[in-house]
Amino acid sequence: MKTNDHEVIFAIVNSGFAEDVMDIAREQGVRGGTILNARGVVKEEAAAFFGITLHQDKEILMMVVEKSLRDNVLNAIYKKMGMAKKAKGIAFSLPVSDVAGLAPAIEPKEETQV
Predict the structure, then answer these.
(1) Separation between Cα atoms, residue 64 and residue 33, nearest integer Å
(2) Which CATH number do you get for residue 14?
(3) DSSP code of 4?
(4) How many Å is the Cα radius of gyration of the chain?
(5) Chain centroid to CA 77: how far?
(6) Using CA atoms, how far apart are residues 83 and 91, in angstroms rounded to an integer?
(7) How many domains does the structure of the chain reveal?
């Protein structure tokens, strides 16, 4: 299905922090994501220049989200899991042109009065 309404957010964090990022994203309305195990690579000179510590084990959290959620999700991840935090996280989004298999948003049920 063609779409202009979705983006994929990638959050790359030190190993062990992807679930925490997912919790932050859920607070912003994201319904789910996929965690991939990864390994970071960087030249030692670049690490020294940027003043970062090398942690090779990484996790990548991918979340397909409605565009209306993107900015709030990225800002929340940055504030709570950014490079200045222990997770050493970076997050970015890319447009999605086609999507299949997404569950429709669940509308809250109205409460009935007795």
Answers:
(1) 7
(2) 3.30.70.120
(3) S
(4) 17
(5) 7
(6) 10
(7) 1
| Residue 27, in any domain of the structure | yes
Residues facing residue 61 across a β-bridge: 11, 35
Which H/E stretch holds residue 69? helix 67-81
Beta-sheet pairing, 90-95 with 57-66: unpaired
One-letter identity of residue 100: A
* Separation between Cα atoms, residue 74 and residue 63, nearest integer Å: 11
Measured CA to CA in angstroms, residue 91 lies from 3, 58, 81, 107 at distances of 22, 13, 9, 28
Domain that holds residue 24: 6-95
Q: Return the structure tokens found at 25.
A: 């994203």
Rounded to two decimals, what is the model's pTM?
A: 0.77
Residue 68 CA to residue 59 CA, distance in Å, equals 25
CA-to-CA distance for 7 and 73, rounded, in angstroms? Answer: 11
- pLDDT tens for the 114 residues of the chain, in order: 777 889 999 999 999 999 999 999 999 999 999 999 998 876 666 556 555 555 579 999 999 999 999 999 999 999 999 888 888 889 999 999 988 877 666 555 566 565
